[in-house]
Design brief:
This protein is of the alpha/beta class. Helix content is 50%, strand content 7%. The strands form 2 sheets. Strands 2-3-4-1-5 form a 5-stranded parallel β-sheet, with helices on both faces. The longest helix is centred in the first third of the chain and has 17 residues.
């Protein structure tokens, strides 16, 4: 390293953003993603043994994809080369491959090629890379915020191990913020800073699993707040400062506390009560507070069956489609998809007739029965008997026949409402139960 490079690196270490300065350089410093880099896990072992094969890291911003690549660069004995898919082309790939082939031939040294935002490579660029990954000239590390199964060519995916990084937990983010405020060498520990617990908790919540976002916010708060004599000459970071630095007000919403349960309760009850405006408000409130959109989507699916049911069978289809779309596209776009499902379900005719399953469960648990009618049993059963009437052999594909056990004859668990499609179901079922087709 020449003097110019040394001075540039030194300046970067002192003047780079806090999120860059606090980036871990070893696996021991890395926080989160225990499912892939916990001690004994595959990726942990591969990095420690310097036996990494081609991998693709994918997950939301700020979850550690680039950091893991940097840790590998610090650990490996191989040449480590980085390209950014937004600024590099086929020519850059060719030059890197030529250098890698030369290094392998001359010294036997492998080359690890890290490509950030690999999903931005078009098909021809990915195709140009493929044969060199395949023959081992380079070991690929790709990083992407998009699902590689959709955004990376299948041939590259099949030759790589895919690791999904999850959003960091509230505890992970809080730990990072507290470390940054204490670290005198890389963080803000050399400054007279006092941060309230509720301010840090708010920043950890609002970061929505993104470490970079949280660290940028706390750095802005510290750098834009003057030390006050009334605080003993310290820079005081309270909740109001945290709100201002991230331009978002704190809601009375704790993902693990009353605010969480109160809001989701109001959300469900608004959909059940056919008030799309209130349902959208509580949806927005949860999203604003950083609630996991997949959690919201699951609640919408439950509501579609519990409160709409067969009054509008399409409601469940809409809800399930919204859940899959939320997993596929993520924030911020999935807010629109969730809103579509919420308004559909809120405006749909209502029925809770599907709850009859719980009455049936009670009878399963409490009513002793002599057994399933013999003619309904599997034909290979030793207690099977003749007498089953095949519905399709009769007019209208229906014949009156006992299906419930003897002890439960006459029980009606499904009680259709008079709403929507279920009104027709109720009329049809009434005829069937009366033995009329």
């Amino acid at each position: 390293m020449n003097l110019f490079d040394y001075e540039r690196e030194k300046k970067l270490k002192t003047e780079a953003p806090l999120a860059t300065r606090m980036r871990p350089s070893t696996l021991e410093e890395f926080i989160g993603q225990e499912h892939i880099v916990g001690k004994g896990k595959l990726l942990y072992r591969a990095i420690k043994a310097d036996k990494l094969t081609s991998v693709i890291f994918f997950g939301p911003p700020g979850t550690g994809k680039t950091t893991l690549a940097r840790i590998i660069a610090n650990t490996t004995k191989a040449n480590f080369v980085q390209l950014n898919a937004t600024t590099s082309g086929v020519k850059d790939i060719k030059a890197t491959v030529d250098d890698a082939r030369s290094a392998l031939g001359v010294s036997g040294r492998r080359t690890i090629l890290f490509i950030d935002e690999i999903h931005r490579f078009n098909k021809s660029q990915q195709d140009a890379l493929l044969p060199h990954v395949e023959d081992g000239t380079v070991t690929l590390i790709g990083a992407t915020t998009e699902n590689p199964y959709y955004e990376v060519i299948k041939a590259l995916v099949s030759r790589s191990v895919i690791f999904e990084l999850k959003p960091l937990t509230h505890a992970d983010i809080l730990s990072l913020l507290e470390t940054a405020l204490k670290d005198e060498r890389r963080g803000l520990g050399a400054m007279p800073v006092s941060a309230d617990a509720d301010a840090l908790s708010f920043l950890a919540d609002i970061a929505n699993g993104d470490a970079r976002k949280a660290l940028n916010a706390v750095e802005l708060a510290v750098l834009t707040t003057e030390a006050a004599d009334s605080n003993g000459g310290t820079i005081k970071i309270d909740l109001s400062v945290a709100e201002e630095c991230i331009q978002k007000r704190a809601l009375a919403y704790d993902k693990g506390g009353d605010g969480h349960y109160d809001t989701i309760s109001a959300f469900i009850k608004s959909m059940r009560g056919s008030d799309p405006d209130a349902a959208l408000y509580y949806l927005a409130r949860m999203l604003y507070a950083g609630e996991d959109p997949k959690f919201i989507a699951r609640r919408i699916v439950i509501c579609a069956s519990e409160d709409v049911g067969n009054a509008d069978p399409h409601a469940l289809q809409v809800a399930v489609a919204a859940m899959h779309a939320t997993e596929f596209i993520g924030l911020p776009e999935c807010q629109i998809t969730l809103a579509q499902a919420v308004t559909y379900i809120a405006c749909a005719p209502k029925s809770n007739a599907a709850l009859g399953v719980f009455e049936a469960r009670d009878d399963v648990a409490s009513v002793p029965i002599s057994g399933i009618p013999a003619y309904l049993r599997d034909s290979n059963s030793p207690v099977a008997a003749d007498g089953y009437l095949y519905s399709h052999d009769f007019p209208g594909n229906y014949v009156k026949q006992q299906y419930l056990p003897d002890e439960l004859v006459g029980k009606q668990y499904y009680k259709p409402s008079d709403n929507g499609v279920e009104k027709k179901i109720k009329e049809s079922l009434a005829r069937l139960r009366g033995g009329v087709i």
